Structures are given as structure tokens and as C-alpha cells.
Amino acid sequence: MEQKTKIDAENGKQDLTITRVFDLPVELLFKAYMEPEIVEQWMGTKVLKLENKKHGSWQFETKDPHGNIVFKANGTIHEFIPGQKITRTFEMDNAPFDVQLEFLEFEKLTDDTSKLNMHVVYRTPELRDQMLKLPFAYGINMAHNRLQEVVNKLK
Amino acid sequence: MNLRRDVFQAIADPTRRAILLLVATQAMTAGVIASNFDTARPTVSKHLQILTECELLKQEQNGREIYYHINAEKMKDVADFIEPFRAMWEDRFNKLETIMKNYKGK
């Protein structure tokens, strides 16, 4: 399977980039970041607030089927250029991570394709690595440790 | 559906992890694998099917028997700690693309 999404995270650095090419005109790609009801669908979270303007702010929240909040995040929008660029901060509530800074650049490739370049800056390299490992931490740490041993033997 | 994501769901199951660890030592038939577990044979077969579908295991015909091998390449992908992060974004972006393609159609 082709990997359309690329992560560039150099060792020991406190930032990373996420790039992705879409089979979508840049206007539609940007719309997916602008419209709260569309953001909700692909991010899988509820959008409580999304003010698309300089000095605007945003707030996302995800609840489990029992109504408990499992994820809550917020931030401020620093720059908003339709179809081109969003600069914003991202902070998870009740989590030991500092605020991160995100630069989202939207680029037209052809009439029907576009590219998203997301540059994320963390406070420290350690925090970046913790954030990178987060999707892994959801209950599969055990699997990783045991399987890592297996993989080491395969090398 | 995201295949990558499924790999991590596959290894999140304790029985499937045990199967991978078992087969990592040597290729085995479904029968031999099942004999290592108290679980019912069809349950083990289901686990083998899932592990094969997400390419963590490979099947090889040897005479009348089918042997299960571990897929080293795929296992290395899984061991890469950035991979789940990448898979998470890939999954989100795939959804975004699908949603917007339908949106365009409206």
C-alpha cells in the first residue's frame, strides 16, 4: 500500500513535518479545515469552537459512549489566509504536554491536486518524542515491548 | 479502511501477540499453533486469518499442509515507533479526502 502521508522527524530535534498530497483542489482541502462539521468528521472529535481569523480560538472535545471526556484540546489562531496558510497553537487539556505551535501550508499542485505541509514545533525534543509515541501508548505498549524482542532477533 | 491501523489493532490482542511470538521461533501449521492454546480451534483460526490479512503472517503450502511464517518486513514496520503516529494521520487524511470528494460531487 502506498504511503501518502510522510513524517519527517529528525533525531534530537524539537519539531517535525507532516506532508500529504491530496486528490483534491486546494480550495476543498482548505474547506476541510475551515468548516466545523467537516473537521468533526475527519478528526473524529466534536468542534466546540472554531474561529477562523487572526486572534481567533478553537476548542475540540471527544467523549466516549458513556459521556466521559477522553480528549480535549484548544488553541489560538495566529494567522489565517484562506486557501494558503493557518498558523495556530495546540494544547491538550489535562495532559503533561506544553503548547505546540503549528504552521499549516496549503499548496496548489494542479487543478485537482494539492499538498498540505504541516510544521509542528514542540517546546523540547523530549516532548516531541512523547507526542510521537502517544498513539502507541493507547494500550499497545505491551505488544510493542514483546514484539520488539522478536524484531531484534529477525535482524 | 486503513490497513496500517489494523496492524496495530491486530497486535493489541493478547492471543494474537502470543501467536506471533510462537510462530517467530519457527513456521507452524494451524493445528500445531492451536495445540498451544486452550482457546477453541475456530477462534485460533480467526486470529490467524486476521494476522494473515494484515500481513504479519505469511502462508506457505508444503505438501498438503499450510505453514504460517512470520513476515519480518511487516514486523519491522510495526516496531518503528513513528509508524502509529503516521498511521493516525494517514487515517485522518484518508477520511478527509473521501469526505471532500463526496462534497465535490454534491
From TrEMBL, chain B:
InterPro entries attached to this UniProt entry: ArsR-like_HTH (IPR011991), HTH_ArsR_DNA-bd_dom (IPR001845), HTH_MetalResp_TranReg (IPR051081), WH-like_DNA-bd_sf (IPR036388), WH_DNA-bd_sf (IPR036390)
Name of the molecule in the record: ArsR/SmtB family transcription factor
PANTHER family in the cross-refs: TRANSCRIPTIONAL REGULATOR, ARSR FAMILY, TRANSCRIPTIONAL REPRESSOR SDPR
Keywords, in A-Z order: DNA-binding, Transcription, Transcription regulation
PROSITE patterns found in the cross-reference section: HTH_ARSR_2
Domain of life: Bacteria
NCBIfam families: HTH_metalloreg
